[in-house]
Structure formats: structure tokens, C-alpha cells
């Protein structure tokens, strides 16, 4: 059956790959964006800043009118503002945490209301291996991504009895616009610690998210699926 799917930050990179993967399954797919919508004609693009409760509600209202209540939510929207701790401003810390963690909370809260009525739903939070390993100059980003694990596991315990699952996907180095800003030296240093010796492709992340949203994963709840080519093995 075609399902109503919403991916935040789904206009590029990992989010767009996830959106395309669900669309290929025959689902009704919507994505949120802040700057520019994706060019894919099969995707419903709605503007939304996930730091705004009002914009989150408006985005869900638009998706519900077009596709019906959201059955699968992928909380992917995120930003970085890497700065060494002594130089990191309050704004750099709070803006990253409010977007990456606060935004995920806002969209999960809004989605849960209709999921509870239906007694079914899938929520997938896109975290990062940095949430488990930490990263120099990434105290804000790592804290926000680590927080997603606690959020997901709390949601899993709270909503699991009503047929709703909440899981986390934690990618390592992924070929995307976000990682393209890293210097070649930095990327090589990461790959040198990665068992597979290569970056993960967005499509590989997307396939894992589609699995977590499937009936095959009905009892996978409160889990963290790390997809990093072995970067964090043994950590």
C-alpha cells in the first residue's frame, strides 16, 4: 500500500536520496526545505524551518491535505557550525542543537498525534557516528546528534505499545554537500580509520531507512543502526 512519508531536509543529500527511495517504493512522499525545493516532480515540497513550531504545524497540515496523515517520518534536517570549544559562541551552540535536536523533537511531536490515532507509525531520526565518538570542533553537532538517541529511545518506550517505532540511523562519512566542505586531508584521515576504506553513498543510507520503515522491521524499536564502514568499530 502507498504510504504518506515526510522527510525533513529532503531537498538534497541524504534526505533527497531517502525521499527518492520511498518514492521508488510507490509511497506518497513529501519533503521540507528551507532554501530551495528539489527538482523531482514526484515529490511534494513544503517550506519549513524546523526551529519554528508554527512552520512545522503548517508543513504537516499541507502534507496531510495532499497525502493524508504522515505514517512515516524521517527527521533528517540538520546544520553544522564547527568551531573549537574556546571560540564557540552561545548562538553557534544553541542554533545547532535547536535545529538538529529541537527540530527532530518538534516534527516527532506533531507526527505522533495522528500516528497515535491510527495506532501505527514509523519515525527514523538521522543522527551521526559523531554523536557516539565525538569530534574536535563539533561539541554542538555531536551533542545534538547524541541527543537523538535518547529522544528515539524515549519515544520508542512511550509509543511502542501503540504500534509506533522510533529508531536512529547514524552515518559516518557520506558523500554529500555537507562533507564536501571538508578538506581533502580531513577526508583522507577519516577514511584511513574506516575499515571499508571508502565513504558511504547516500543511497546506502536510504535503503536502511526504507527497511526500518517496513513491516520487516516491526519489532526493531529504539535501535541505533550505525552505517559508517567500520569507522567506529571498537569505539
Automatic annotation (TrEMBL):
Enumerate the PROSITE patterns for this protein.
ADH_SHORT
User: What are the GO MF terms of this UniProt record?
Assistant: oxidoreductase activity, acting on the CH-OH group of donors, NAD or NADP as acceptor
Q: Which organism is it from?
A: Streptomyces alboflavus
**Pfam families attached here?**
adh_short_C2
Question: Which SUPFAM superfamilies does the record match to this protein?
Answer: NAD(P)-binding Rossmann-fold domains
Q: What is this protein called?
A: 3-oxoacyl-ACP reductase
Q: Which UniProt keywords apply?
A: Oxidoreductase
Per the record, the similarity remark reads: Belongs to the short-chain dehydrogenases/reductases (SDR) family.
- Report domain Ketoreductase positions: 3-172
Amino acid at each position: 500500500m502507498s504510504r504518506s512519508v515526510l522527510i525533513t531536509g529532503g531537498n538534497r543529500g541524504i534526505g533527497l536520496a531517502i525521499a527518492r527511495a520511498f518514492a521508488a517504493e510507490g509511497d506518497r512522499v513529501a519533503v521540507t526545505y528551507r532554501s530551495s525545493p528539489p527538482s523531482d516532480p514526484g515529490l511534494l515540497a513544503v517550506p519549513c524551518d524546523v526551529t519554528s513550531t508554527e512552520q512545522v504545524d503548517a508543513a504537516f497540515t499541507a502534507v496531510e491535505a495532499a497525502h493524508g496523515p504522515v505514517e512515516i517520518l524521517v527527521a533528517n534536517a540538520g546544520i553544522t557550525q564547527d568551531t573549537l570549544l574556546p571560540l564557540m559562541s552561545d548562538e553557534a551552540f544553541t542554533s545547532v542543537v535547536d535545529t538538529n535536536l529541537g527540530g527532530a523533537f518538534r516534527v516527532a511531536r506533531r507526527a505522533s498525534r495522528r500516528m497515535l490515532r491510527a495506532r501505527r507509525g514509523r519515525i527514523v531520526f538521522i543522527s551521526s557516528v559523531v554523536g557516539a565518538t565525538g569530534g574536535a570542533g563539533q561539541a554542538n553537532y555531536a551533542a545534538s546528534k547524541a541527543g537523538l538517541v535518547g529522544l528515539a529511545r524515549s519515544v520508542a518506550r512511550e509509543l511502542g505499545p501503540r504500534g509506533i517505532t522510533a529508531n536512529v540511523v547514524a552515518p559516518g562519512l557520506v558523500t554529500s554537500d555537507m562533507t564536501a566542505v571538508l578538506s581533502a586531508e580531513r577526508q583522507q584521515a577519516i577514511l584511513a580509520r574506516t575499515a571499508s576504506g571508502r565513504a558511504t553513498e547516500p543511497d546506502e543510507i536510504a535503503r536502511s531507512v526504507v527497511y526500518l520503515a517496513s513491516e520487516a522491521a516491526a519489532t526493531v524499536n529504539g535501535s541505533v543502526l550505525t552505517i559508517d564502514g567500520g569507522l567506529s568499530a571498537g569505539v
